[in-house]
Amino acid sequence: MFGKVKKILGIEGAKVDIIIPEKISKDAKVLHGILKITSLSNDNSIESIHVKLTERYSRGRGQDKLIDEYTMGQLDRKEKITVSKNEIIEVPFELDFVFVQSEMDRIGDNNFLAKGIVFLAKKARNVQSEYTVHAEVKVKGTTLNPIVSKPIILQ
């Protein structure tokens, strides 16, 4: 009984980790990585893998702070993979993404004189972008699927 509850909740089931470079170029257009899937219990059946790269764009301060999240690219793979107890399975992936530059950044990149003004304007508005890779593995028979998120630097 207790084992069935643990399996439904995903406790001691499949675990996922993501191996990606710390930094990639904004112009790369492809992110190469590896999903490392392990299992603490007997056979787990993986039904699908979902990987996505998001940008968390924040600006403003205090109560006036606005946050938007944009999906830059995503990958859905429907694969049947069986992971045995204490087995490590590595699944390589290639995630195509599109880096969209803001109008202010385009002006700063195209005009040497405007670059300083754009920098000051972004600093005054507290503009920040954070990039994160999220991976979710759908395991047959569980309600809570293993999920991992890892920050990445786009330069």
CATH fold call: Immunoglobulin-like
Tell me the overall shape: elongated
How confident is the prediction overall: mean pLDDT? 85
CATH architecture: Sandwich
CATH level 1 name: Mainly Beta
Quick one: how many beta strands? 8
- Runs in which pLDDT lies below 50 for 5 or more consecutive residues are none
Order of helices and strands: HEEEEEEHHEE
Tally of structural domains: 1
Share in β-strands: over 45%
Helix amount, in percent? 10-25%
Q: State the separation between the terminal residues, measured CA to CA.
A: 51 Å
Tally of helical runs: 3
- Helix-and-strand structural type: alpha+beta
Report the radius of gyration as a whole number of Å.
Answer: 20 Å
Strand order of the largest sheet: 2-8-7-4-5
What features would you describe in this structure?
By secondary structure, the chain is of the alpha+beta class. The chain has one domain: Immunoglobulins (Immunoglobulin-like). Helix content is 19%, strand content 52%. The protein has three helices and eight strands, in the order H-E-E-E-E-E-E-H-H-E-E. Helix 2 packs antiparallel against helix 3.
Highlighted features:
155 residues; alpha+beta; Immunoglobulin-like; five-stranded mixed β-sheet; three-stranded antiparallel β-sheet; 3 helices; 8 strands; elongated
